[in-house]
From TrEMBL:
InterPro entries cross-referenced by the UniProt entry: TPR-like_helical_dom_sf
Coiled-coil annotated spans: none
Domain of life: Bacteria
Membrane-spanning intervals of the chain: none
Protein name per the record: Tetratricopeptide repeat protein
Compositionally biased intervals (Basic and acidic residues): 49-62
Stretches for region Disordered: 49-68
Length: 68
């Protein structure tokens, strides 16, 4: 209803990525974090707090995956 690029939709998708990560589904989390971060950057800009948070979470998930 709100659309794929609406901030509330992107925040919800970010929560989904966090849930994937918490469940040990790091690859799924990484994919979702990357998509959300890219969309947030396009919609809200690279310096917006949500964008930076998504990028930070993407980097953390990426490090976790590399450590395996």
């Amino acid at each position: 209803m709100l659309g794929a690029d609406h901030p509330d939709t992107l925040i919800t998708r970010h929560g989904l990525a966090a849930a994937y990560e918490a469940a040990g589904r790091t690859e799924d989390a990484l994919t979702e974090y990357e998509q959300v971060a890219n969309r947030l950057e396009a919609v809200m800009g690279p310096e917006q707090k949500l964008t930076r948070t998504a990028r930070d979470d993407l980097e953390r998930a990426s490090r976790t995956l590399r450590q395996r």
